[in-house]
Amino acid sequence: MDLTGARVLAHRAAVQGLHGDDPDAVLPLGVVDSPPKTGAAALGVRGRREGTEDLVRVLSLRGAPHLHRREDLPALRRQLRPRTPRQLAAWCGAHPTPEPEHVDLVVDLLHREFPGDTATKGELSAAISPHLPAVVTPYCPGCEANHVIENVFRLATLLAGIELEHLGPKLVFRRPTAKPDVEEPGEPTLLRDYARLVGPFAKADAEKWLGTGPPDPWPDLRPVRVDGKRLLALDDLDLIAADPPAGLLLFPRDPYLLGPRHLVADPDVAKQVWRPVGSPGALVLHGRVAGAWRHEFHGRTVTFQVTGWSKVRGTARRAISDQAEVLAGVWGGAALGADVVEW
């Protein structure tokens, strides 16, 4: 099957609810929520107006804070739990890989040693690290101490059923009320949702998103060509015929921007948006990333500084102005207004 990138992106925008008709469509993937409220922003631009109080905030994919539906957590734990040394090594970075049973030990200690009703990451790590073997607590030059491997700790909080407070500059964990059951391997529903909501992808893109190393098994996939490049898609791929939204203000880890980066941005534009530190937002015009944006709060106004704003015209300009108002509402309710200026 030969496809165009424009058709793939139009389909992606439609199935991800970016026309405002299904604001929760992306929740099977989870929504990155770092810094806090960026997850609410991702759902807000899709039409969600009731906030995110009904969702849980946990450390999930790649150990990053995400918003999820509580009923999706068992499947998430089942699919992110490392079951091979290679999968566990993906969570350990440059550290030697411990045994899988060490992950279960960290999970048990998170329940047994949890201090108080809530705890910061530092408090919780300090409570469990003295009870762990050396292979799980290597020396950290930055902290000048031995403590549990960072991403093993993050993964274990998810496996232990530990949730995060929704707001605040630091990660604050809530005491778990019950230990979740151990989930057995099952269907790769996360990867199937990724393929369904992102469209054609490369295996490396999906592995990077999961952060778990090569998954096993993969869903049933077939090769397709998009703008001449070979990618993979679900066997039952059925692209929705639609026009992409005229203008969007997205954060750089929004689900719309997953998958092969060349589909959404030219290399020079990608360098503006995806940076090692402090990435700005992505200005999306008619499906593709056209520039960047940042925002600042000034009293009761949030100012959006948009690359090339003076050159944005017509329906795209109106759409970006509407998006700015939506985001101001997510961040401050009726107390904030939006102002869009040139960057």
Uncertain spans, ≥5 residues at pLDDT below 50?
none
Distance between the termini: 41 Å
Query: How much helix is in the residues?
Result: 25-40%
Q: What is the N-to-C succession of helices and strands?
A: EHEHEEHHHEHEEHEHHEEEHHEEEHE
Q: Characterize the main sheet.
A: 5 strands, mixed
Share in β-strands = 15-25%
Total count of domains:
2
Sheet/helix structural class:
alpha+beta
Main-sheet strand order equals 11-12-13-14-15
According to DSSP, the number of beta strands is 15
**Gross geometry:** globular
Tally the helices: 12
Report Rg.
21 Å
Mean pLDDT: 94
Oligomer description: single chain
Explain what this protein looks like in three dimensions:
- By secondary structure, this protein is an alpha+beta fold.
- The chain folds into two domains: 173 residues, no CATH class; 96 residues, no CATH class.
- The protein is 33% helix and 19% strand.
- The chain contains twelve helices and 15 strands.
- The strands form five sheets. A five-stranded mixed beta sheet has the order 11-12-13-14-15. A three-stranded mixed beta sheet has the order 1-9-10. Strands 2-4-3 form a three-stranded antiparallel beta sheet.
- Helix 5 crosses helix 7.
- The longest helix has 19 residues.
- It starts with a strand and ends with a strand.
- GO terms for molecular function: DNA binding.
- Pfam families: AlkZ-like.
- Keywords: DNA-binding.
- This is Winged helix DNA-binding protein.
- InterPro entries: AlkZ-like.
